[in-house]
Amino acid sequence: MNMINKNKINILVVDDEDSITSFIKMGLEAEGYNVYTASDGIGAMALARKLKPEIIILDIMMPGMDGYEVCDEIKKLMKTSIIMLTAKDEIDARVKGLNSGADDYMIKPFSFKELLARINARLRNIFPELNSLIPIGDFLIDNGAHEISFRDKTLKLSVTEYNLLKYLLINNGLVLSKASIIENVWCNDFNGEENIVEVYIRYLRDKLGDKEHKIIFTVRGVGYRMTI
Fold first, then answer.
1. Element (DSSP H or E) covering residue 70
2. How far separated are the first and last CA of the chain, in Å rounded?
3. Can you tell me the distance from the alpha carbon of 165 to that of 62, in angstroms, rounded to the nearest whole number?
4. How many Å apart are CA 174 and CA 226, to the nearest integer?
5. Domain match, 95 and 122 both
6. Chain centroid to CA 14
7. DSSP tag of 132
8. Domain of 167: which CATH number?
């Protein structure tokens, strides 16, 4: 089985607070990743050039080069996924970060479990070439065969059902809005109403035997979350 080899994944954590970098480094190393840290933008740039990390966790407010500058420069140099760290009241900062090339953001304080879910989602989305077979809980995504198995049985899925289930799975643990699902699953082929998402979620639940909605969980007023 061709799975992601975590000890070949480099993650760079950039923050001027030692307590944050130590906390993240300890947790990610326990997960099997190679983790490096920097306390300022200039140090981050030097390490990024040397390591070419797959993931960069980047604070915005730092001495010297701030997170925006670092993000912009790194995105020009290499293929990587950047998760920016922001404070609760920095709404404009989060928007600016995403506009500067960041792939995701997290609001301080955050849980390590959520950070790990976001890292895994970014790896699956940005670097699909890292693995052709992706095991996620009781599921196995086979990118080569365009199939998904559940508890060792291959599911009979239409193209849309496959794309929807795969999108839910690679973002396991994250709440996905109907708008984001339509954008990523239907892309430019969508001309209908948002309730088409509900229809296909129901199809998937039927095929998974998810009568109590414990696998695909509805977050009322927001969207759906895979909980495996």
1. helix 67-77
2. 20
3. 39
4. 7
5. yes
6. 18
7. S
8. 1.10.10.10
